Amino acid sequence: MHDRVYKTEEEWRQQLTPEQYRVMREKGTEPPYTGLWWNHQGEGLYCCVGCGSTLFSSKTKFDSGTGWPSFWAALNPGHLAHHEDRSYFLRRTEVSCSRCGAHLGHVFDDGPPPTGLRFCVNSAALAFEPEDQVREEGLSAPAYE
Ligand SMILES: [Zn+2]
């Protein structure tokens, strides 16, 4: 397991864009069909903008029609943390990065087979590493410092 990343809110503010900060540290949600990745094709890995932890693979990405990047499985379940979210009078399961605590989105149980899960994630919390780049550089060093 990788090390936890702890930063002050001030440090996060300096590292992240205002939109990234709003989503990842204040549990905001970006408007649908506006993010970088909802309609993104291409082979590679989606990583946490906050700490570089690998979260999702393009192999499990699917078009959910929601306007947010959607995945039916986590790349490594240990890289995600789940919390019950009762805001807005709904019961949802919030998903965050287990390494740096960044809010990512929610997971629902109406996804496609084989898992039946739908991870609905904000583009603002994700960075994309194309597969050829992943092969060349390996996954050891976070590229988002
Ligand atoms: Zn993270």
Describe the protein in words.
The chain has one domain (9-137): Peptide methionine sulfoxide reductase (Metal Binding Protein, Guanine Nucleotide Exchange Factor, Chain A, Beta Complex). It contains three helices and nine strands. The chain has helices at 9-15, 18-24, 131-137, and strands at residues 44-48, 54-57, 61-62, 70-71, 80-85, 92-97, 103-108, 118-121, 126-130. Zinc ion binds at residues 48, 50-51, 53, 97, 99-100, 102. Residues 48, 50-51, 53, 97, 99-100, 102 line the site of zinc ion (ZN).
Summary?
With 145 residues, the protein is α+β, with helices and mostly antiparallel strands.
Question: In CATH, what is the homologous superfamily?
Answer: Peptide methionine sulfoxide reductase
The CATH C-level name is: Mainly Beta
Care to count the β-strands? Answer: 9
Strand content: 25-35%
With strands numbered from the N-terminus, the spatial order across the biggest sheet is 3-4-8-7-6-5
Task: Tell me which oligomeric state these chains represent.
Answer: single chain
Q: Which structural category do the helix and sheet elements fall into?
A: alpha+beta
Helical fraction: 10-25%
CATH architecture: Beta Complex
The helix-strand sequence is: HHEEEEEEEEEH
Radius of gyration: 14 Å
Q: Which topology does CATH recognise? A: Metal Binding Protein, Guanine Nucleotide Exchange Factor, Chain A
Stretches where pLDDT is under 50 for at least 5 consecutive residues are none
Q: Report how far the terminal alpha carbons are from each other.
A: 20 Å
Shape: globular
Instruction: Profile the largest sheet.
Output: 6 strands, antiparallel
Number of helices: 3
